[in-house]
Amino acid sequence: MAKHNADTKSVRVTLVKSVYGQLRRHRATASGLGLRRINQTVVVADTPENRGMINASRHLFRVEET
């Protein structure tokens, strides 16, 4: 996992809906972001790759800019 510099932007992503019953790619997106259970929050770098993952499954996540 990459370390974040003070000037690197990041976002807090929280899983707010269960991945059970979701499409396989939505489950894979949550897993790829490091989310395992409901209400778990992770801080990830604000990169185009992570933004794309978040946007692909945005109904599952709450996103906060940090």
Q: What separation lies between the terminal Cα atoms?
A: 18 Å
In quaternary terms, these chains amount to single chain
* DSSP E strands, number: 3
Classify the secondary structure makeup into a structural class.
Answer: alpha+beta
CATH fold naming = Ribosomal Protein L30, Chain: A
Percent of sequence in beta strands: 15-25%
Structure description:
- By secondary structure, the chain is α+β, with helices and mostly antiparallel strands.
- The chain has one domain: Ribosomal Protein L30, Chain: A (2-Layer Sandwich).
- The chain is built from two helices and three strands.
- Strands 2-1-3 form a three-stranded antiparallel beta sheet, with no helix packed on it.
- The chain is globular.
- It starts with 9 loop residues before the first strand and ends with a strand.
- The model has no long low-confidence stretch (mean pLDDT 92).
Please describe the topology of this protein.
Layout: E1 10-15, H1 24-32, E2 41-45, H2 48-56, E3 61-65
Antiparallel strand pairs: 1-2, 1-3
